[in-house]
Design brief:
Blueprint lengths: L2 H27 L5 H31 L8 H27 L3 H30 L9
Length: about 140
């Protein structure tokens, strides 16, 4: 499976699993008692992450297709996960601060914890996704 269909399935599965896990995590670490705020933060961050994932993955694959070395080794997978998560930090810290009643510093610390969790999740998800659906055209040898 290749192209837009692959990207839409990838993003949908990734975000569905992520919302379930992140709403629970945010609720457990939030200073607010209500699961509603954690759920709102998770859904809003999911929407932001969905758009960011499409943009970032498309840009990454554009770059990847122009590289002399094909395939997805450990370093390339780690770079993909790290770049994605760093972009999310910039986008999500203000959102978490507002919805979870935190200072920007507290939201940043919370987001760092979530970033570590999601870097591992992203790495493992990509391994599993590529195992089930195969590598994208950008990572295949000519």
């Amino acid at each position: 499976m290749q192209g837009l269909k692959r990207k839409l399935i990838y993003v949908s599965l990734f975000e569905l699993i992520a919302v379930c896990m992140s709403s629970t995590l945010l609720w457990l670490i939030s200073t607010r008692d209500s699961f509603v705020y954690a759920g709102m933060a998770a859904l809003a961050s999911s929407a932001i992450a969905l758009v960011w994932n499409l943009v970032y993955t498309s840009a990454f694959e554009y770059w990847e297709a122009r590289q002399a070395t094909k395939g997805r080794g450990l370093l390339r997978r780690a770079a993909h996960a790290l770049g994605f998560e760093l972009g999310l930090v910039v986008l999500l810290v203000p959102l978490f601060a507002h919805l979870l009643g935190l200072s920007l510093w507290q939201a940043f610390i919370y987001d760092l914890g979530l970033m570590v969790f999601f870097m591992v999740y992203t790495f493992l998800f990509n391994l599993g996704f590529d195992h089930v659906f195969g590598l994208p055209a950008s990572a295949l040898a000519s």
